[in-house]
Amino acid sequence: MDAIILQILNGLDKGSAYALIALGLTLIFGTLGVVNFAHGALFMIGAFCAVTFSRLLSLSYETVDPTKTDFLGNPAKINTPYVQDWFGMQTGSVIIDWAVPLSILFAIPVMLAVGVIMERGLIKHFYHRPHADQILVTFGLAIVLQEIIKFYYGANPIPTPAPAVFAGSFDFGTLMGFDPNTIIYPYWRLVYFAFAVAIIAGVFAFLQFTTFGMVVRAGMADRETVGLLGINIDKRFTIMFGIAAAVAGLAGVMYTPINSPNYHMGMDFLVLSFVVVVVGGMGSLPGAVLAGFVLGILESFASMAIVLETIPGLNQIIIYLVAIIILLTRPRGLMGRKGVMEE
Protein backbone atom coordinates (compact mmCIF):
# COMPACT_ATOMS: atom_id res chain seq x y z
CA MET A 1 0.00 0.00 0.00
CA ASP A 2 2.83 2.42 0.80
CA ALA A 3 4.37 1.77 -2.63
CA ILE A 4 1.03 2.46 -4.30
CA ILE A 5 0.59 5.75 -2.44
CA LEU A 6 4.13 6.79 -3.34
CA GLN A 7 3.52 6.08 -7.02
CA ILE A 8 0.28 8.07 -6.92
CA LEU A 9 2.21 11.01 -5.47
CA ASN A 10 4.85 10.66 -8.19
CA GLY A 11 2.10 10.50 -10.80
CA LEU A 12 0.41 13.64 -9.49
CA ASP A 13 3.78 15.40 -9.67
CA LYS A 14 4.34 14.43 -13.32
CA GLY A 15 0.69 14.91 -14.12
CA SER A 16 0.82 18.48 -12.79
CA ALA A 17 3.37 19.45 -15.42
CA TYR A 18 1.51 17.58 -18.17
CA ALA A 19 -1.81 19.14 -17.17
CA LEU A 20 -0.48 22.71 -17.06
CA ILE A 21 1.20 22.49 -20.46
CA ALA A 22 -1.77 20.66 -22.01
CA LEU A 23 -4.13 23.27 -20.55
CA GLY A 24 -2.28 26.04 -22.39
CA LEU A 25 -2.19 23.99 -25.59
CA THR A 26 -5.93 23.40 -25.38
CA LEU A 27 -6.65 27.07 -24.73
CA ILE A 28 -4.80 27.97 -27.93
CA PHE A 29 -6.40 25.22 -30.02
CA GLY A 30 -9.87 25.89 -28.61
CA THR A 31 -9.75 29.65 -29.19
CA LEU A 32 -7.63 30.02 -32.30
CA GLY A 33 -7.78 26.55 -33.83
CA VAL A 34 -3.97 26.57 -34.03
CA VAL A 35 -1.82 23.51 -33.38
CA ASN A 36 1.05 25.20 -31.55
CA PHE A 37 4.19 23.05 -31.59
CA ALA A 38 6.11 25.93 -29.98
CA HIS A 39 4.23 25.54 -26.71
CA GLY A 40 6.96 23.38 -25.18
CA ALA A 41 9.40 26.21 -25.90
CA LEU A 42 7.19 28.49 -23.77
CA PHE A 43 7.60 26.04 -20.89
CA MET A 44 11.37 26.21 -21.43
CA ILE A 45 11.39 30.03 -21.56
CA GLY A 46 9.51 30.12 -18.26
CA ALA A 47 12.16 27.91 -16.67
CA PHE A 48 14.91 30.20 -17.93
CA CYS A 49 13.01 33.21 -16.57
CA ALA A 50 13.66 31.65 -13.17
CA VAL A 51 17.33 31.16 -14.07
CA THR A 52 17.66 34.76 -15.26
CA PHE A 53 15.92 36.19 -12.20
CA SER A 54 18.14 34.13 -9.89
CA ARG A 55 21.22 35.46 -11.66
CA LEU A 56 19.95 39.03 -11.42
CA LEU A 57 19.45 38.65 -7.67
CA SER A 58 22.98 37.24 -7.37
CA LEU A 59 24.66 40.21 -9.07
CA SER A 60 27.34 41.50 -6.71
CA TYR A 61 30.14 43.98 -6.32
CA GLU A 62 33.62 43.34 -4.97
CA THR A 63 35.04 44.89 -1.81
CA VAL A 64 38.26 44.40 0.12
CA ASP A 65 38.20 43.31 3.75
CA PRO A 66 41.50 44.41 5.35
CA THR A 67 40.77 42.30 8.44
CA LYS A 68 41.00 39.09 6.42
CA THR A 69 43.68 37.74 4.10
CA ASP A 70 43.78 35.15 1.35
CA PHE A 71 46.25 32.26 1.15
CA LEU A 72 48.90 34.63 -0.28
CA GLY A 73 48.55 37.06 2.60
CA ASN A 74 46.80 39.73 0.55
CA PRO A 75 43.64 41.48 1.83
CA ALA A 76 40.66 39.24 1.10
CA LYS A 77 38.17 40.24 -1.61
CA ILE A 78 34.50 39.77 -0.78
CA ASN A 79 31.58 39.67 -3.21
CA THR A 80 28.47 41.30 -1.78
CA PRO A 81 25.17 40.91 -3.71
CA TYR A 82 23.48 44.22 -4.42
CA VAL A 83 20.26 42.85 -2.93
CA GLN A 84 21.97 42.38 0.43
CA ASP A 85 23.40 45.88 0.20
CA TRP A 86 19.99 47.41 -0.57
CA PHE A 87 17.79 45.43 1.83
CA GLY A 88 20.25 44.34 4.49
CA MET A 89 22.15 41.12 4.94
CA GLN A 90 19.30 39.06 6.40
CA THR A 91 16.48 40.28 4.14
CA GLY A 92 18.72 40.14 1.08
CA SER A 93 19.69 36.54 1.83
CA VAL A 94 16.00 35.59 2.15
CA ILE A 95 15.20 37.23 -1.20
CA ILE A 96 18.04 35.34 -2.92
CA ASP A 97 16.94 32.08 -1.28
CA TRP A 98 13.35 32.57 -2.53
CA ALA A 99 14.46 33.46 -6.06
CA VAL A 100 12.39 30.72 -7.75
CA PRO A 101 8.99 31.64 -6.25
CA LEU A 102 9.73 35.36 -6.63
CA SER A 103 10.61 34.84 -10.29
CA ILE A 104 6.90 34.29 -10.90
CA LEU A 105 6.52 38.08 -10.70
CA PHE A 106 9.21 38.41 -13.36
CA ALA A 107 7.92 35.59 -15.56
CA ILE A 108 4.27 36.68 -15.82
CA PRO A 109 4.83 39.92 -17.79
CA VAL A 110 7.64 38.32 -19.82
CA MET A 111 5.50 35.34 -20.84
CA LEU A 112 2.45 37.49 -21.58
CA ALA A 113 4.61 39.65 -23.85
CA VAL A 114 6.19 36.62 -25.54
CA GLY A 115 2.75 35.10 -26.16
CA VAL A 116 1.24 38.27 -27.60
CA ILE A 117 4.27 38.92 -29.81
CA MET A 118 4.24 35.33 -31.03
CA GLU A 119 0.55 35.45 -31.87
CA ARG A 120 0.57 38.88 -33.52
CA GLY A 121 3.89 38.42 -35.30
CA LEU A 122 3.52 34.88 -36.61
CA ILE A 123 0.55 32.76 -35.57
CA LYS A 124 -2.15 35.12 -36.90
CA HIS A 125 -0.87 34.58 -40.45
CA PHE A 126 -1.66 30.84 -40.19
CA TYR A 127 -5.20 30.88 -38.80
CA HIS A 128 -6.75 29.72 -42.05
CA ARG A 129 -3.88 27.53 -43.18
CA PRO A 130 -3.87 23.71 -42.89
CA HIS A 131 -2.80 22.22 -39.56
CA ALA A 132 0.28 20.79 -41.27
CA ASP A 133 1.48 24.33 -42.06
CA GLN A 134 0.81 25.40 -38.47
CA ILE A 135 2.79 22.46 -37.14
CA LEU A 136 5.75 23.14 -39.43
CA VAL A 137 6.02 26.85 -38.68
CA THR A 138 5.55 26.52 -34.90
CA PHE A 139 7.95 23.58 -34.71
CA GLY A 140 10.50 25.66 -36.59
CA LEU A 141 9.93 28.51 -34.14
CA ALA A 142 10.47 26.11 -31.25
CA ILE A 143 13.83 25.05 -32.70
CA VAL A 144 14.88 28.70 -33.12
CA LEU A 145 13.94 29.54 -29.51
CA GLN A 146 15.73 26.43 -28.30
CA GLU A 147 18.94 27.38 -30.11
CA ILE A 148 18.75 30.95 -28.77
CA ILE A 149 18.55 29.61 -25.22
CA LYS A 150 21.43 27.23 -25.94
CA PHE A 151 23.56 30.10 -27.30
CA TYR A 152 23.07 32.37 -24.28
CA TYR A 153 22.85 29.82 -21.45
CA GLY A 154 24.91 26.91 -22.75
CA ALA A 155 24.04 23.26 -23.28
CA ASN A 156 24.44 22.06 -19.70
CA PRO A 157 21.60 21.94 -17.16
CA ILE A 158 21.59 24.86 -14.72
CA PRO A 159 20.76 23.90 -11.10
CA THR A 160 18.15 26.24 -9.64
CA PRO A 161 17.41 25.23 -6.05
CA ALA A 162 14.15 25.65 -4.19
CA PRO A 163 14.04 27.79 -1.03
CA ALA A 164 15.91 26.16 1.85
CA VAL A 165 12.70 25.72 3.83
CA PHE A 166 11.46 23.31 1.12
CA ALA A 167 14.76 21.47 0.70
CA GLY A 168 13.81 18.48 2.84
CA SER A 169 11.18 15.79 2.58
CA PHE A 170 7.79 15.36 4.21
CA ASP A 171 6.90 12.20 6.13
CA PHE A 172 3.63 11.62 4.32
CA GLY A 173 3.13 8.15 5.80
CA THR A 174 2.63 9.34 9.38
CA LEU A 175 -0.49 11.23 8.28
CA MET A 176 -1.99 7.96 7.06
CA GLY A 177 -1.06 5.75 9.97
CA PHE A 178 2.10 4.18 8.53
CA ASP A 179 5.37 3.85 10.41
CA PRO A 180 7.69 6.88 10.31
CA ASN A 181 9.90 7.14 7.22
CA THR A 182 7.66 4.77 5.26
CA ILE A 183 6.46 7.32 2.69
CA ILE A 184 8.92 10.19 2.32
CA TYR A 185 8.21 12.77 -0.36
CA PRO A 186 10.06 16.00 -1.25
CA TYR A 187 8.39 19.18 -0.03
CA TRP A 188 8.86 21.01 -3.31
CA ARG A 189 7.06 18.36 -5.34
CA LEU A 190 4.06 18.78 -3.05
CA VAL A 191 4.34 22.55 -3.50
CA TYR A 192 4.40 22.07 -7.28
CA PHE A 193 1.25 19.96 -7.19
CA ALA A 194 -0.56 22.55 -5.03
CA PHE A 195 0.65 25.33 -7.36
CA ALA A 196 -0.61 23.45 -10.41
CA VAL A 197 -4.03 22.92 -8.82
CA ALA A 198 -4.21 26.63 -7.97
CA ILE A 199 -3.31 27.71 -11.52
CA ILE A 200 -5.76 25.27 -13.08
CA ALA A 201 -8.53 26.40 -10.73
CA GLY A 202 -7.68 30.04 -11.49
CA VAL A 203 -7.92 29.51 -15.26
CA PHE A 204 -11.25 27.70 -14.99
CA ALA A 205 -12.63 30.35 -12.61
CA PHE A 206 -11.49 33.09 -14.98
CA LEU A 207 -13.24 31.46 -17.94
CA GLN A 208 -16.36 30.56 -15.98
CA PHE A 209 -17.07 33.57 -13.76
CA THR A 210 -15.70 36.65 -15.55
CA THR A 211 -17.34 38.53 -18.41
CA PHE A 212 -14.13 38.28 -20.40
CA GLY A 213 -14.04 34.52 -19.89
CA MET A 214 -17.68 34.07 -20.85
CA VAL A 215 -17.12 35.98 -24.09
CA VAL A 216 -14.09 33.81 -24.83
CA ARG A 217 -16.07 30.63 -24.21
CA ALA A 218 -18.81 31.92 -26.48
CA GLY A 219 -16.20 32.71 -29.12
CA MET A 220 -14.79 29.18 -28.82
CA ALA A 221 -18.28 27.80 -29.48
CA ASP A 222 -19.32 30.22 -32.26
CA ARG A 223 -16.73 32.77 -33.28
CA GLU A 224 -18.71 34.33 -36.13
CA THR A 225 -21.83 35.03 -34.07
CA VAL A 226 -19.81 36.72 -31.32
CA GLY A 227 -18.09 38.86 -33.94
CA LEU A 228 -21.47 39.89 -35.39
CA LEU A 229 -22.43 41.22 -31.94
CA GLY A 230 -19.74 43.86 -32.31
CA ILE A 231 -17.23 42.20 -29.97
CA ASN A 232 -13.58 42.24 -31.03
CA ILE A 233 -13.10 38.53 -30.41
CA ASP A 234 -9.70 38.50 -32.15
CA LYS A 235 -8.30 40.85 -29.52
CA ARG A 236 -9.63 38.66 -26.73
CA PHE A 237 -8.17 35.57 -28.35
CA THR A 238 -4.79 37.31 -28.56
CA ILE A 239 -4.98 37.95 -24.83
CA MET A 240 -5.89 34.30 -24.28
CA PHE A 241 -2.81 33.29 -26.26
CA GLY A 242 -0.76 35.42 -23.86
CA ILE A 243 -2.49 33.79 -20.87
CA ALA A 244 -1.80 30.32 -22.29
CA ALA A 245 1.87 31.28 -22.70
CA ALA A 246 1.93 32.54 -19.12
CA VAL A 247 0.45 29.26 -17.83
CA ALA A 248 3.15 27.28 -19.64
CA GLY A 249 5.83 29.69 -18.43
CA LEU A 250 4.73 29.46 -14.79
CA ALA A 251 4.74 25.67 -15.08
CA GLY A 252 8.36 25.94 -16.21
CA VAL A 253 9.31 28.41 -13.46
CA MET A 254 8.14 26.20 -10.62
CA TYR A 255 9.55 23.05 -12.25
CA THR A 256 13.15 24.29 -12.18
CA PRO A 257 14.03 22.86 -8.74
CA ILE A 258 12.66 19.46 -9.84
CA ASN A 259 14.44 19.31 -13.20
CA SER A 260 17.40 21.64 -13.77
CA PRO A 261 16.62 23.86 -16.80
CA ASN A 262 18.25 22.91 -20.09
CA TYR A 263 17.69 24.01 -23.64
CA HIS A 264 15.84 20.86 -24.76
CA MET A 265 13.41 20.53 -21.84
CA GLY A 266 10.62 22.07 -23.92
CA MET A 267 10.91 19.36 -26.55
CA ASP A 268 10.96 16.70 -23.84
CA PHE A 269 7.51 17.79 -22.65
CA LEU A 270 6.04 18.86 -25.99
CA VAL A 271 5.23 15.48 -27.52
CA LEU A 272 3.90 14.10 -24.24
CA SER A 273 1.71 17.15 -23.81
CA PHE A 274 0.20 16.75 -27.27
CA VAL A 275 -0.55 13.13 -26.46
CA VAL A 276 -2.27 14.35 -23.28
CA VAL A 277 -4.37 16.81 -25.31
CA VAL A 278 -5.39 14.11 -27.80
CA VAL A 279 -6.29 11.65 -25.04
CA GLY A 280 -8.27 14.28 -23.16
CA GLY A 281 -10.03 15.51 -26.27
CA MET A 282 -8.98 18.27 -28.66
CA GLY A 283 -10.39 21.56 -27.40
CA SER A 284 -11.59 20.16 -24.05
CA LEU A 285 -10.03 21.99 -21.08
CA PRO A 286 -11.34 19.53 -18.44
CA GLY A 287 -10.20 16.67 -20.66
CA ALA A 288 -6.67 18.05 -20.88
CA VAL A 289 -6.41 18.35 -17.10
CA LEU A 290 -7.93 14.92 -16.45
CA ALA A 291 -5.73 13.22 -19.03
CA GLY A 292 -2.62 14.96 -17.67
CA PHE A 293 -3.08 13.57 -14.19
CA VAL A 294 -4.28 10.13 -15.33
CA LEU A 295 -1.35 9.64 -17.72
CA GLY A 296 1.09 10.96 -15.12
CA ILE A 297 -0.13 8.35 -12.62
CA LEU A 298 -0.04 5.55 -15.22
CA GLU A 299 3.52 6.48 -16.19
CA SER A 300 4.51 6.47 -12.53
CA PHE A 301 3.09 2.98 -11.93
CA ALA A 302 4.75 1.74 -15.12
CA SER A 303 8.10 2.88 -13.66
CA MET A 304 7.86 0.53 -10.66
CA ALA A 305 10.65 -2.06 -10.47
CA ILE A 306 8.25 -5.00 -10.38
CA VAL A 307 6.52 -3.76 -13.54
CA LEU A 308 9.78 -3.12 -15.40
CA GLU A 309 11.04 -6.59 -14.51
CA THR A 310 7.93 -8.03 -16.12
CA ILE A 311 7.70 -5.66 -19.11
CA PRO A 312 11.01 -3.81 -19.62
CA GLY A 313 10.67 -0.31 -21.03
CA LEU A 314 6.92 -0.07 -20.38
CA ASN A 315 7.36 3.30 -18.65
CA GLN A 316 8.71 4.74 -21.91
CA ILE A 317 5.72 3.71 -24.01
CA ILE A 318 2.76 3.50 -21.64
CA ILE A 319 1.45 6.96 -22.53
CA TYR A 320 1.58 6.19 -26.24
CA LEU A 321 -0.12 2.83 -25.75
CA VAL A 322 -2.96 4.53 -23.91
CA ALA A 323 -3.21 7.13 -26.67
CA ILE A 324 -3.45 4.40 -29.33
CA ILE A 325 -6.19 2.59 -27.42
CA ILE A 326 -8.14 5.83 -26.87
CA LEU A 327 -7.85 6.87 -30.52
CA LEU A 328 -8.98 3.45 -31.74
CA THR A 329 -11.97 3.23 -29.41
CA ARG A 330 -12.91 6.89 -28.90
CA PRO A 331 -11.24 9.15 -31.49
CA ARG A 332 -12.56 12.37 -29.96
CA GLY A 333 -10.79 11.59 -26.65
CA LEU A 334 -12.08 11.17 -23.13
CA MET A 335 -14.01 14.44 -22.97
CA GLY A 336 -13.84 15.76 -26.53
CA ARG A 337 -16.89 17.14 -28.31
CA LYS A 338 -18.75 14.73 -30.55
CA GLY A 339 -17.54 14.98 -34.12
CA VAL A 340 -14.07 16.30 -33.27
CA MET A 341 -11.42 14.00 -34.81
CA GLU A 342 -14.16 11.58 -35.84
CA GLU A 343 -14.71 12.56 -39.48
UniProtKB/TrEMBL annotation:
An example Gene Ontology CC term for this record: plasma membrane
Protein name: Amino acid/amide ABC transporter membrane protein 1 (HAAT family)
Membrane-related topology note: Multi-pass membrane protein
Family that this chain belongs to: Belongs to the binding-protein-dependent transport system permease family. LivHM subfamily.
Gene Ontology molecular-function annotations: transmembrane transporter activity
Pfam family for this entry, one: BPD_transp_2
InterPro entries cross-referenced by the UniProt entry: ABC_transp_permease, BCAA_transport_permease
Taxonomic lineage of the native organism: Bacteria, Pseudomonadati, Pseudomonadota, Alphaproteobacteria, Rhodobacterales
Localisation: Cell membrane
Domain of life: Bacteria
A Gene Ontology biological process term: amino acid transport
Keywords: Amino-acid transport, Cell membrane, Membrane, Transmembrane, Transmembrane helix, Transport
Transmembrane region(s): 16-35, 42-61, 98-123, 190-216, 236-257, 269-298, 304-328
